[in-house]
Design goal:
transmembrane; transmembrane helix; 43% helix; 2 strands; membrane
Length: 93
């Protein structure tokens, strides 16, 4: 309830300051005023949505996956057709 009251008071303050501080706009068909009102309204509604609580009502705890299997590096020897080559290989179990 407290956040709703603060949000409403903020909207009223911003709207009041815009009405009293801005001179009337000169537009042929009111397009400029409509764009300004849309931007201001979108900013207010977007800010209210961004600061609202999540829909699920509280924190969600997800079980952690099991830790990965222990791995180690081992040197293996293989024949490449020309001779024996030693390369590091990662072995996990």
């Amino acid at each position: 309830m407290n956040k709703t009251l603060v949000a409403a008071l903020t909207v009223a303050t911003v709207a009041g300051s815009l009405v009293t501080a801005t001179p009337p706009a000169k537009a042929d068909n009111g397009v400029g005023a409509g764009i300004a009102a849309g931007l201001i309204g979108g900013a207010i509604v977007g800010g209210a949505i961004a600061s609202s609580r999540p829909a699920y009502g509280g924190p969600v705890y997800v079980a952690e996956p099991p830790p990965p299997a222990p791995c180690y590096w081992r040197r293996e020897r293989y024949w490449d057709g020309y001779g024996w080559v030693i390369r590091p290989v990662r072995v996990c179990y």
